[in-house]
Design brief:
Strand content: 5-15%
CATH topology: Uracil-DNA Glycosylase, subunit E
Number of domains: 1
Strand order of the largest sheet: 1-3-2-4-6-5
Order of helices and strands: HEEHHEHEHHEEHHH
CATH superfamily: Uracil-DNA glycosylase-like domain
Shape: globular
Largest sheet: 6 strands, mixed
Bound molecules: uracil
Number of helices: 9
Number of strands: 6
Distance between the termini: 23 Å
Length: 218
Amino acid sequence: MSSDDLKILADEAASCTACVLAETRTNVVFGAGGSDADLMFIGEAPGRNEDLEGEPFVGAAGRLLDRLADEVGIARDDVYIANVLKCRPPGNRDPREEEITACKGYLAQQIKLIDPAVVMTLGNFASKLLLKTTTGITRLRGTAYPWWGRFVVPTFHPAAALRGGERVLNDMREDFALACRILDESPVDEPADPRSEHSEPTPQPTSLQETAQLEFFA
Ligand code: URA
């Protein structure tokens, strides 16, 4: 994929006013990493540090994420990192339904452009959005789910490991190892063919973002 397309999308997001978070954000935190990454992490929403710096996962949770990835031989440059929401909810409150709805076209388009073999969803919000489920992360994790020609591997949010200690951390280590096993086995440049898994007719989209959104999150 062309990194120009990602840049165009990032520029679009930078002036987004689709929800109330535009009024309180310092920066839009679009995403960061390799545009050809085979592994993508999806978190929840920027926190205070991320809002100030405009980069995802630069605080304590990010350092833990880097450490877990490093333990299985993955460097930050080898992954793409994004969030469900691109703007910080005030006081780090939970994302609201209408904010997720307003923002998910960006995420869908990022996934489509980067086309990773494995997506690790970090915590409840990302996992429930991609897997279209109300099941919580504790029950979802530990399994790789086939998803639009790739795999989703849900795991805890690193902030949960900062609070929850060694047990949560060990579960996350298992999930990272699972993601790595899939990456090691996955054929390079295998074309994703979502149509073979999802044969329902899709409504007519009006923009690139909406195209991806209708595919993944409709
Ligand atoms: N938590 C998230 O979910 N995303 C970030 O970018 C930082 C903290």
